[in-house]
Sequence to fold (288 residues):
Amino acid sequence: MKKIIAMLLASAMLCVGFAGCGGKDSKDGKDGNPNVSATDVSATDVIVKGTVDVSNVKLIKDGTLSVGMEIGYPPFEDKAENGDAIGYDVDLVYAIADKLGLEVNIVDTAFDVIFAGIGTNYDCVVSAVTITDERRENCLFSDPYIDSYQAVVVKKGSDIKITSLNDLSGKSVALQDATTSKALLEDMIKTGTVTDCKMGPSEKVLTAFTALDNGEYDVVLCDSPVADTYITNYPDKYELAFLDKENVEQFGVAMAKTDEALQTAVNEAMKQLKDEGFFDDNKAKWFA
Fold:
């Protein structure tokens, strides 16, 4: 699943018309992650609070929405210098909680084990989670809140040419473990669509980019908004080699398979947020 923040890039890098809108305030990302930019005005300023009934929603802690999140996947989740969680998904969590009239408790959790904690360590997961049929077998999902595409990133000036994901044959590919990027590449290797490919899963997407920096791998395969963030913040280091525009992925809030009450409440909250313009504001705030 993974980690998410103006100069212009090809508009195809972002889904459904994410517009370039650089922020005035810049906060350094965690452990050398790209700077995560934000505008002065919060995307949550216009939210009408406490408008969704949660009387039938069972929470791990009364009055609090506990959320599993892997912090370190910019521009979706990152940490400011003071240690605060920041990013697109962080603002979304607080906006949803405002609608539900709840406080927020973010539980920083490694992505490769994040789904196992639903219902025990936290009520839901908001962490750039792609909605897939496989994940639906064990989780309920909210309505989708963002579109993404698989992107291939190379070092700036690389002579590697990628015209489709099939061209990953013969390449070494760095990516984050437990993500749809890994699942996709594994399937392509299994079916013989991609051959002679070295795959290097890492716990963090940052590690994948570090491996590319060090020449350990030829390319990084990741979600397009993440690719865009690294390219935008390090234009002299990275460039886009390929964007799989033919296959869209959608992110959603994941919760327990039996937690239909929370699913209903979250969907209603997101509908109200959409009507109030939150999603447009949040895209402009966090995406290059």
Q: What stands out?
A: Helices lie at 88-100, 133-136, 180-190, 205-213, 224-233, 260-275, 278-286. Residues 260-275 form the longest helix (16 residues).
